[in-house]
Amino acid sequence: RFSVEGLGDAELSGATAVVIDVLRATTSMVQALASGAKAIYPTASTEEAVKLLQSIGRDDTLLCGERRTRRIEGYHLGNSPSEFTAEVVAGKRLIMNTTNGTRAFLAAESADRVIAAAFNNLGAVTVAVAGVERLVIACAGRSGAFALEDTLCAGHLIRRLRAAGTDPLILTDGAIAAEALADAFPVGDTLASTAAGRDLAEAGLGDDVADCARFDVHSVVPELDDRVIRLPHGG
Ligand code: MLT
Fold this sequence. Notes:
This protein is 38% helix and 18% strand. It contains 10 helices and 10 strands. The model has no long low-confidence stretch (mean pLDDT 93).
């Protein structure tokens, strides 16, 4: 059974959860881990992030995140995927705090497995979840509201699972709607036209939207384990 949910709606216990925040949290996480970051600590507030940095107390740790698309004051990095290059993040731990995306991971914590997905790693995620019995695709959205880009990505994941012959594919109404969106909306143009896409363009971050619209750039499947997102088995 495959469902697409907003946060808080889903029964997560016993399920595999795929968390999606295309613009830009999960895209940046995928980029960071593909660039060799050791671990990402998702946090729910700037206070929690700073406290965690103090308690970890290590100089290989970077604070990253955004408020209203901009880097948070005093943080090392913002939330543009292009900031997470190997030169900057390889071997580093990242404490991340974003408006919706990092909170979505903490909200999905009670699932058996919690995986980060974006267009950038969709093929690898498809392979990773193809056999699961109950999949909940948790769309981060925006402040609890629907975000087209996340549901569109969910729809593409379902489409790929169907193409891979996943059977039985029993879809909730949300999942049926997501798949229909994937059939109807071209990814690149649609991402640019969403509220998040427009806000990023207005902030001069239009290139981020294009980066987030790219399919299968990376083959990593980040997974949350004990409040830390990393690549299982280090790769
Ligand atoms: C979020 O977590 O809300 C997003 O990733 C926002 C952003 O990157 O601008």
